[in-house]
Design goal:
Strand 3, helix 4 and strand 4 form a beta-alpha-beta unit. The protein is an alpha/beta fold and 485 residues long. Strands 5-4-3-6-9-8-10 form a seven-stranded mixed sheet. Helix 9 packs across helix 10. The chain contains 14 helices and 21 strands. Among the domains are: 192 residues, Spore Coat Polysaccharide Biosynthesis Protein SpsA, Chain A (Alpha-Beta Complex), CATH 3.90.550; 144 residues, no CATH class.
């Protein structure tokens, strides 16, 4: 190839490149339009990237506020990674052990003067050398009294005289009881996931408490409990508060933040009546709402609690309170003996205790309502499920002894024996094979009242007892949808 031909070939080869390198002439308006489009594309890509980052990242971190002491927001709860010791950091998913009784530390508010009588309630559920916790007293017990081995160990609360308390109709003991959660936390006991607070007359049902707490991630901030049954109490105090007598649970991460601000909170809310009200106010400053569980029972009622217990909601029974202020839960038994009878059934099948169910005998047109381990009601007619699930009004409100209002529906309890069912109470419980039980309920005959002499009651009154057989209710039943079996 000659040099001239070669030159021409190279010249032709680069023609396409030259055409590509030629920039078109742009108007100012066109340039601005291209710039805006480029900016929009960049913003879209950045937004999508951020969303993907948040979705994929296991523990998203948002910008903390200086006042929040680097508390990280996660949904409606908060936790502080930096201020929790390495032994408490389960956030990497390394702790797979199922929550059990050893993970719970109880803080029981008590008094040296009242413990001798109130301890009978605690000893129904406390398991020495198994349950962990203390009853916190206002002073040491008398030196001449031996502390019962069947009771929780005691500690004496720190002096609280420096704190303000300005509620004219309350008691300063509320300040001391408020600080139980802090004093419990400062003990530094290992392997604690939940701090559970209660009064010295609170009766806990431990297996059901574990079932409820196991539903929640103890690595997050949780405040779990229930309201009062009496609307007047909820209005005066709060619907967003877990009532202390019914007991409430605070997860370890929430307790870790709460103890930092608790003493200051006590003074800020000096006018608040009770310890539970003060605790809720402090927790609200952290930004954690109450998670309500209907199995916690404050029992803010007067009179006969039968109607409340016989129509228990479909939820594990976690606690009962104020049992000194109501009648015995079963007739012809002392308050303690009636509870002991309830516990005989509870120990056989914890999850099923006082769970409410009903059925119909269509050959006789009868309705039967069963509160397992507690009572049976026999109606000589077909009664709608809506009526059967509604509690008999056998009680009054806490403050005014009124017949209303309550946080659940009630129906009148008639003193006319022909306008109410025939009642049966637990007589005995026994195992009838692996995973099955048989409970027997005997008719209650009130010597002060007459039987209904109407014809449709004659045959039902001949039924002297009921036998109810059932399989043991698995704790996992509460984790799935649908009816309990």
């Amino acid at each position: 190839m000659s040099s001239s031909t070669k030159e021409t070939y190279l010249h032709d080869l680069f023609k396409p490149c030259k055409s590509l390198l030629v920039f078109p002439t742009l108007k100012a308006s066109d340039f601005l339009s291209l710039l805006i489009k480029a900016a929009l594309v960049f913003c879209a890509v950045a937004s999508i990237s951020f969303v993907l980052f948040v979705a994929i990242t296991r523990h998203p971190r948002f910008l903390p506020c200086p006042e929040c002491n680097r508390v990280i927001l996660s949904d409606h709860r908060k936790f502080d990674h930096d201020n929790i010791s390495d032994s408490r950091k389960y956030f990497d998913g390394l702790n797979f052990e199922k929550t059990n009784i050893s993970h719970i530390l109880f803080g029981i508010g008590g008094s040296a003067k009242t413990w001798h009588n109130r301890r009978l309630y605690n000893e129904l559920w406390w398991k020495p050398n198994v349950t962990r916790g203390f009853v916190w007293l206002d002073e040491k017990p008398p030196a001449d009294e031996t502390w019962p081995e069947t009771s929780p160990r005691y500690r004496v609360s720190a002096d609280t005289s420096k704190f303000k308390y300005t509620c004219s109709w309350g008691s300063r003991s509320a300040v001391r009881i408020t600080r139980i959660v802090k004093e419990s936390f400062q003990l530094g006991l290992q392997n604690i996931r939940w701090f559970v607070m209660g009064d010295d007359d609170t009766v806990f049902f431990l297996e059901n408490l574990i079932t409820v707490l196991s539903k929640y991630d103890h690595n997050q901030m949780y405040y779990i409990g229930g309201n009062s049954e009496s609307v007047e109490q909820d209005v005066i105090h709060s619907y967003t508060m877990a009532y202390g007598g019914g007991g409430f649970a605070i997860s370890y991460p929430l307790a870790a933040e709460l103890v930092k601000i608790l003493d200051g909170c006590i003074d800020r809310y000096a006018s608040f009546y009770g310890s539970d009200q003060k605790i809720q106010a402090c927790i609200s400053e952290i930004g954690v709402p109450l998670t309500k569980e209907v199995g916690f029972h404050q029992v803010d009622i007067r009179g006969n609690p039968y109607g409340l217990l016989a129509a228990h909601p479909v939820a594990p029974l976690v606690s009962l309170h104020h049992l000194d202020y109501v009648q015995s839960i079963s007739p012809e038994k002392t308050k303690i003996d009636a509870l002991k009878k309830l516990f005989t059934a509870y120990e056989k099948d914890p999850g099923r205790i006082i769970q409410h169910s009903f059925c119909y005998d269509l050959t006789r047109n009868w309705s039967v309502s069963v509160s397992w381990g507690y009572t049976v009601q026999l109606y000589p007619s077909l009664v709608t499920s809506k009526t059967l699930e509604t509690a008999f009004l056998t009680f009054q409100s806490w403050r005014n002894w009124a017949t209303q209002p309550f946080t659940f529906n009630t129906r009148p309890y008639s003193h006319d024996p022909c306008e109410r069912p025939i009642f049966y109470f637990l007589d005995r419980v026994e195992e009838i094979g692996a995973g099955r039980s048989l409970t027997t309920y005997r008719m209650f005959n009130d010597s002060n009242e007459k039987h209904c002499e109407r014809g449709d009651y004659r045959l039902p009154l001949a039924v002297l007892q009921f036998n109810v057989s059932t399989s043991t209710l698995s704790p996992n039943s509460w984790k799935r949808n649908g009816p309990l079996t």
